[in-house]
Write a structure and sequence with these properties.
The chain has 138 residues and is α+β, with helices and mostly antiparallel strands. Helices cover 16% and strands 39% of the residues. It is built from two helices and eight strands; from the N terminus they run H-E-E-E-E-E-E-H-E-E. The N and C termini lie far apart (58 Å).
Length: 138
């Protein structure tokens, strides 16, 4: 009986933990070509915004595909923001031109207006408290 109670408590705890995990499905639109890769970074901490080292990163190999849809799975409830770029030449880095202006297409969650530099974490952030589907336009 004691073992049965422990088993039930374990199952309840496991279910509770997994029920606080969500997925974020991201569709990237307005691709200029089907070459290279889309590189995404999911960030939770505003202090680490746009720091690839502090983010959960994913890569989507285009290889002639017309649509780019990928999913971050098992993400805990919280506030997040996504940044991404189309690494068309597949060199693993965002190519920058004069005055550090990006030469490759990029985008952010919430599709904020880009004026002078990247948006703030707050402009790109969203609350994850259920499974989400986002569209990010390059």
């Amino acid at each position: 009986m004691h073992l049965l109670l422990i088993s039930i408590l374990y199952l309840l705890q496991t279910h509770q933990v997994s029920s606080n995990q969500y997925s974020i499905t991201v569709e990237v639109t307005n691709l200029s070509s089907q070459k290279g890769a889309i590189r995404l970074a999911l960030c939770e901490n505003p202090e680490d915004w746009l720091s690839v080292d502090a983010a959960v990163t994913k890569e989507f190999r285009l290889e002639g595909k017309e649509n780019c849809v990928l999913t971050f799975k098992n993400i805990p409830k919280g506030t997040y923001a996504i940044s991404l770029y189309h690494d068309e030449n597949d060199n693993g880095a965002m190519d920058l031109g004069p005055m550090r202006i990006p030469e490759e297409a990029y985008g952010f969650s919430n599709n904020p207006a880009i004026v002078f530099g990247p948006p703030s974490f707050e402009e790109a952030s969203f609350l994850l408290d259920k499974n989400l589907s986002l569209t990010i336009t390059l």
